[in-house]
């Protein structure tokens, strides 16, 4: 990849998160101005030992060409440097925290566009809770020594994790619903929940604390509880082994196909042995879907998927991808053939061109049809077009389970605009993780902050 291509590609909005870039830019200034290299310890043949640049400057010994001006090229002793860096970083985080508060106040008044933050980051989303960024930075600094670094400035990932910690701190006292993406959030891509997953005791702890826990996944198996039970086999087996009560199990849900197929967890009769086992029960759409969703017509869904399929086929052939089309009743996608790994750029090309094609199709169809919501996303090694999206998924659960946006958090790995977790931002708080290990990390931060109701303790 040539550098100009790389720069152009990365400048594209879909590769960046504007709020994180903004905070990163602010933290970069004190880093550039103050995080100077450590004073060198020079080996001088004349004195036969190690001495610092200060000794050499004071005594005039040594063979180096340093002069008095060089003193300023280096940082003071470690401790004061770290403390001063930390102080500057904390001031910045506190200022952003205050800007977010102002944005929230303006949003309550119905004019979020009047906030300073909105003027600087026009695409900034809604904040459903305050974000204690200063406290979260202190926490992250204790773990990752951000202020002690002289060559690596606070990174995108540092800031992403700090925002997660701040969100966890803010939502812990009021949280009532937590939703999780599946692939890369709870388990690796395309794999299943295994019994030894360290996430299982954490999910049970959330349920014991009275939270509703739901997996909101793109994986779509229309009404087929068995397929989801297979993917979640390890988790359900541990629920079974621990003989969790029906009341506890009722707090666990699976919403598949983004927002299309809802299941509740509970004890049921095993088909094979007739013994009671923990499994999933399909909930009929009429009992939870809003009327506008129930009004989506089958033929219109299929027409939209036909247009998407045609565009995906064109992309596969234009880029010569080793991929096949997979059509489901409410989705169509391309999946690699065999062990082929499709390049991220090619997957993004499929996503962006299909998004564009479907938007044009809906605009040209005019008002004669309902504009059926859809999402096109890069799933890491595949591309899918799903009917509906996770925004609707989270909203459906919030209504069904009675959870407000400020009491809901969605955990996922796809928060760039080509990802399918991105849409949830307008309806709930979010935690952006990049692996099941990071999900474990945020849950280990969250669970100690929850209060367990007396009957569960
Ligand atoms: Mg995912």
Automatic annotation (TrEMBL):
Residues spanning the membrane: none
Catalytic activity: IMP + H2O = inosine + phosphate
Compositional bias segments (type: Polar residues): 58-67
Keyword annotations: ATP-binding, Hydrolase, Magnesium, Metal-binding, Nucleotide metabolism, Nucleotide-binding
Pfam families: ISN1 (PF06437)
GO molecular function terms noted in the UniProt entry: 5'-nucleotidase activity; ATP binding; magnesium ion binding
GO biological process, one term: nucleotide metabolic process
Name recorded for this polypeptide: IMP-specific 5'-nucleotidase 1
Organism: Mortierella hygrophila
Keyword hit for Hydrolase: yes
Ranges where the record places region Disordered: 56-75
EC supergroup of this enzyme: hydrolase
Family: Belongs to the ISN1 family.
